[in-house]
Amino acid sequence: MEKFVPVQASILLTDVADLFVFLLRTIKETFSRNFEFREFLRQCFQIGYKSLPLVSITGIIEGLVLTIQSRPSLLKFGAVSMLPGMVAVSLIREMGPVITALICAGKIGSGMGAELGSMKVTEQIDAMEVSSTNPIRFLVVTRVLAATLMIPILIIYADALGMLGGWAGANIKGDVTLVLFFTQAFAHVGFDDLLPAVIKSFFFGGVIGLVGCYKGYSAGRGTESVGIAANSAVVLASLLVIIIDVIAVQITDMFT
Amino acid sequence: MNRAQTENKASPETKSGEAAVEINDLKKSFGTQEVLKNVSLRLLKGENLVVLGRSGMGKSVLAKCIVRLLNPDSGTIKVFGENVGELNRHGLSELRKKIGFLFQSGALYDSMTVRQNLEFPLRRIKKDLSKKEIDEKIMKVLEDVGLPDALNKMPSQLSGGMRKRISVARTIILDPMLMLYDEPTTGLDPATSDEISALIDDIQRKLKTSSLIITHDIECARATADRVIMLHDGEVHLEGKLEAFEKSADPLIVSFFKSSHGQSHK
Question: Nearest C-alpha of chain B: how many angstroms from A134?
Answer without folding.
Answer: 9
